[in-house]
Design a protein that fits this description.
- It contains nine helices and no strands.
Length: 245
């Protein structure tokens, strides 16, 4: 019975497997052969592949990584979006690296999300402001009551009434102490005095009979004059009073 010998892994295979097991430490690939990178880089995550490309200087890895970035684009944004991008590049007859397309699309999505978040935030703030404006707030200031009595025993109405009364009293005193009223008063006194002096004194004659013929005519004339003077004084006083108020 012939025993078949099993062929062990080559040194290259062992190196490739070792690199795959330690992709998290992989950075600048330098001058690593193209066919080796095609075996190693497909096992990278998106973040690991981004790190390898950004770390590798003076070398374009797109011949190896471009198809990998297209795969990540499809996973992240869907097959439909990937197809739209392919059709647009065909129509415009241009070719972009899928890494660049992924970064541009990711930026657009993030900006759109940020605008959406800002719009939602403003709506919440507007709603909060509306709710706060409709809330009942306690007022710490107590308005003065119209029925509250003052220190002097009366409210605002009593103060106004007292002020009005004092003004009326002052106006009345000023009127009574005015020169016009004094003149009218003096005229009335003169009229009274003249009337008093014009009343005839009836004396008893020697013959026992009273004689009132001459005195009656004198008293009638004096009475008529007194009444006229009193009426004139009253009219003057009334006019002065109306003019005063």
């Amino acid at each position: 019975m012939t025993m078949m010998k099993r062929k062990g892994p080559s040194l290259v295979d062992l190196c490739v497997q070792k690199a795959i097991d330690n992709l998290r430490y992989l950075g600048d690939v330098g001058e690593t052969a193209h066919h080796l990178l095609e075996r190693i880089l497909p096992h990278c995550t998106l973040e690991q592949l981004m790190h390898v490309e950004n770390s590798t200087e003076e070398r374009d890895l797109s011949p190896v990584t471009d198809k990998l970035w297209k795969k990540f684009y499809e996973q992240q944004f869907g097959d439909k979006s990937t197809s739209v991008v392919v059709e647009r590049m065909k129509e415009k007859k241009v070719v972009y690296k899928w890494k660049q397309l992924y970064e541009a699309k990711l930026k657009d999505v993030e900006e759109a999300q940020q605008k959406s978040f800002d719009r939602i935030k403003k709506l919440y703030q507007k709603e909060d402001a509306r709710k706060q404006s409709r809330q009942v707030r306690l007022c710490t200031k107590v308005p003065p009551s119209s029925n509250k009595r003052s220190f002097y025993g009366g409210g605002p109405g009593s103060l106004i009434g007292n002020t009005k009364s004092s003004l009326m009293k002052k106006a009345k005193l000023d009127y009574l102490n005015s020169q016009e009223v004094k003149n009218v008063t003096a005229m009335r006194k003169n009229v009274v005095q003249r009337t008093h002096h014009s009343i005839p004194v009836i004396r008893k004659p020697r013959g026992g009979c009273y004689s009132a013929t001459g005195s009656a005519s004198t008293s009638d004339s004096a009475s008529t004059t007194s009444l006229r003077l009193a009426a004139a004084a009253s009219a003057t006083a009334g006019k002065l009073k109306e003019r005063r108020f």
